[in-house]
């Protein structure tokens, strides 16, 4: 998906449907403007989003003017067009800044609708700004800026059903825009949302932030409450809803990570199953996934064992960690063949941690050898992180002054686990890496569990804390350093009762 100003081939909606994900710019498409009945031609230059056979969003050129185009494909195209139009018009009527509607109408060929909006050049999404900074204060300033705008939307009876920072843009002068009319739901004009609707909508936004930002919800709600004349949102009620929404989003996302979708490529055959990140799916990478064994032993052996073998290898010019989960004997094969493999579980847990804002080497691919539905040997491919584990890090010279930072990082990590019902299962110091920024990276996730039963959580979390403290049995100074943290977490566990 590249940007260009040259003219491409003329395509119909049917061509786009048949191309599935393989749509390449530039291409042209025609539609009939409902207001002027003129036949208009668009030259699409860059694709922002593609949902195969359903929707395509791109930057295009129309009569030497840069525009944003939304193409709706298939039998539901008219419904989605009307929903988008209603949302944009509702935003405009509420006096909010958004893109202007330039033209819309049926595609010249095939079943589809075209919507042309003004292109908000020079703007940047709040999500892009968030991603470009890492310090907490700067990120909080972004959230403070958007809260009054959300309050204005709610007061006007508007809410975005899929509210997130990508739907808010800012220009160089600091003006805020709301985009994506499709997700805008309206109540009776001029009537504010109900308190329940407001709380749920705000919870959906906050649930997408790392859990550490829950500590600032009270401050951000104060900014929201100052803007509204209705009854004030209570922090505790909102935080309870945030927790529910975060769990809801997490469960929805974890269903996607084994499916062919925008983020992942899945290949499911009688003798294998693999899933990989879509941006990696080059010819060389897919050849590697088809035969990972050919790469084992070509790089550096990181771990040898009966149950798992770990190698650092290079694939497509990228260093990756390949973890092969071995089958020891026929009894072991029989016990594992009906259950999800440890690679399957690690893949899931890696993305679960990522959704919760916890650092872990990014899972790049997962492979299971199969015979029909019976599972055999499995592989997990991870991004390589060159960092010492916590045990080795504490033995380095000059790290004593950094121990308070590490304790704070660990407390944050353990609290997120406890608040989300997670136990690690093998909390050796070797399974916690410390990078240059003194951030903790969690590895070896195949024993990790998310517990719905509180008694189970308490049992397994206590075991985690006991195992963590045993790391320092031979180093009394470090044991004395970390013991208060473990005692604090054990007290938190007791409060769950």
Short structural summary:
By secondary structure, the chain is an alpha+beta fold. The chain has 14 helices and 22 strands.
State the main characteristics.
497 residues, alpha+beta, six-stranded antiparallel beta sheet
| Mean of pLDDT | 90
What is the overall number of helices?
14
Helicity level: 25-40%
Strand content: 15-25%
- The tally of beta strands, per DSSP, is 22
From the alpha carbons, calculate the radius of gyration and give it in angstroms: 26 Å
Which parts are unreliable, with pLDDT below 50 for 5 consecutive residues or more? Answer: none
Distance between the termini: 53 Å
- The neighbouring-strand order within the major sheet is 12-13-17-18-16-15-14
Overview of the molecule:
With 497 residues, the protein is of the alpha+beta class. It is 37% helix and 25% strand. It contains 14 helices and 22 strands. The chain has helices spanning 13-19, 77-93, 126-131, 136-155, 195-206, 217-227, 235-256, 283-290, 330-336, 342-355, 390-394, 403-419, 454-470, 476-495, and strands at residues 27-32, 39-51, 55-62, 65-73, 101-106, 112-118, 124-125, 158-160, 168-170, 176-178, 184-186, 264-268, 272-277, 300-303, 308-315, 318-325, 363-371, 374-383, 422-423, 432-434, 440-442, 449-450. A 7-stranded antiparallel β-sheet has the order 12-13-17-18-16-15-14. It has a 6-stranded antiparallel β-sheet with strand order 1-2-3-4-6-5, with helices on both faces. The chain is globular, with a radius of gyration of 26 Å. The model has no long low-confidence stretch (mean pLDDT 90).
């Amino acid at each position: 998906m590249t940007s260009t100003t040259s003219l491409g081939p003329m395509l119909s909606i049917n061509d786009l449907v048949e191309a599935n994900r393989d749509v390449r710019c530039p291409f042209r498409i025609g539609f009939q403007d409902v207001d002027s009945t003129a036949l208009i031609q668009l030259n699409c230059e860059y694709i922002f989003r593609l949902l195969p056979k359903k929707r395509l969003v791109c930057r295009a050129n129309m009569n030497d003017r840069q525009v944003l185009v939304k193409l709706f494909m298939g039998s539901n195209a008219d419904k989605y067009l009307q929903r988008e139009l209603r949302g944009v018009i509702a935003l405009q009527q509420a006096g909010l800044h958004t893109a202007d509607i330039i033209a819309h109408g049926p595609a010249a060929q095939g079943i589809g609708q075209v919507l042309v909006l003004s292109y908000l050049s020079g703007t940047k999404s709040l999500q892009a700004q968030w991603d470009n900074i890492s310090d907490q204060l700067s990120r909080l300033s972004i959230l403070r800026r958007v809260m009054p705008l959300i309050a204005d939307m709610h007061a006007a009876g508007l809410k975005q059903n899929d509210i997130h920072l990508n739907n808010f843009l800012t220009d160089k002068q600091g003006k805020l825009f709301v985009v994506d009319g499709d997700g805008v739901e309206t109540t009776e004009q001029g009537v504010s949302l109900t308190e329940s609707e407001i709380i749920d909508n705000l919870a959906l936004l906050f649930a997408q932030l790392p859990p550490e930002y829950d500590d600032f919800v009270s401050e951000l709600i104060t900014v929201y409450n100052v803007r509204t004349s209705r009854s004030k949102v209570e922090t505790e009620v909102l935080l309870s809803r945030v927790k529910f929404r975060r769990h809801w989003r997490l469960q929805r996302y974890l269903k996607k990570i084994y499916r062919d979708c925008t983020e992942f490529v899945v290949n499911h055959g009688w003798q294998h199953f693999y899933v990989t990140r879509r941006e990696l799916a080059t010819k060389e990478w897919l050849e590697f996934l088809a035969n990972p064994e050919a790469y084992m032993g070509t790089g550096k052996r990181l771990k040898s064992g009966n149950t798992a073998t770990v190698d650092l290898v290079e694939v497509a010019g990228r260093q990756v960690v390949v973890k092969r989960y071995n089958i020891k004997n026929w009894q072991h094969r029989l016990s594992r063949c009906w259950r999800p493999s440890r690679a399957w579980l690690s893949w899931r847990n890696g993305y679960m941690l990522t959704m919760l804002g916890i650092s872990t080497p990014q899972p790049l691919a997962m492979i299971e050898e199969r015979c029909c539905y019976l599972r055999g040997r499995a592989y997990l491919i991870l991004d390589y992180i060159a960092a010492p584990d916590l045990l080795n890090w504490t033995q380095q010279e000059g790290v004593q002054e950094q121990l308070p930072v590490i304790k704070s990082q660990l407390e944050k990590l353990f609290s997120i686990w406890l608040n989300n019902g997670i136990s690690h299962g093998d909390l050796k110091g070797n399974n916690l890496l410390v990078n240059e920024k003194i951030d903790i990276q969690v590895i070896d996730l195949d024993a990790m569990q998310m517990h719905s039963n509180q008694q189970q959580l308490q049992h397994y979390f206590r075991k985690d804390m006991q195992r963590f403290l045993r790391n320092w049995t031979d180093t009394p100074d470090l044991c004395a350093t970390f013991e208060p943290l473990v005692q604090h977490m054990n007290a938190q566990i007791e409060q769950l009762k």
